[in-house]
Amino acid sequence: MGLNCLVFLFELSLGTNGLASFTSKFGVVPAALTSQPNITEYGTIFSSMFLHAGWAHLIGNMWFLFIFGDNVEDRFGHLFYLLVYLITGVGAAMTQTLIDPHSEIAMIGASGAISGVLGAYLVFYPSATVEALLPLGVVSRIVNVPAVLFLLLWFGMQLIPGIGSLGSIGKEGEAGGVAFWAHVGGFVAGVAIAIVAGAFRKRENIW
Hints:
The chain is mainly α and 207 residues long.
C-alpha cells in the first residue's frame, strides 16, 4: 500500500503531459507485449501494478487491499504474500493480454494483483463476514455480509462484463476502461495459489 501511494504521489508531480507519457511507458500495452516481446516490455507487467489513473482509482484499490490483504498476509507470511501479489498481478496482465492481444491501450493499476488477494481470501476465509454499506433510499446501513457471498458477487461483476466485452475486441474506436479480464485472471490465480499452498502446508503439518 505504501509503495502504491508513493508512486501515485510521484505521478501527481509529473503534470498532465508527463503523466500520459509515464503511464504509456510503464503500463502494459498488450500489442507491444505480443508484437515485440523483450525485457523492457515484460518489465511493464510489474511496473503497471503500482500505477493509478487518479485518486478514485487509488483509493478504491487501496481500500480493498486494506480490508482483505492483512488476513491473507497473516496466512502466507510477509515475503510470500509479496510474491503472491506479484504473481497474481502477472496472471492478471497476461489474461487481459491473451484476451485482447492487439490493444494499444496502456493497462495500469493494482486491481489485478489485488484480485488475486481476494481470490486467496475466499479460499482461506470462506466463513468470514465483511462489513458492507447497503444503500436504502436516502438512508444507508452497514450490514455484515458473508465473505464468500461478497467475493463471488464481486467476481460475477467482473466476469459478466468481461464476457460482454468480447464482442467489441479489435473494433475501431477502442477506448480505455476497466480491464475486467485482468480482474478475472488475477482472482483465479489467487484461488489457485491459495489452494496449492493450503494443500502443501496441510501435508507438511505447517498449519
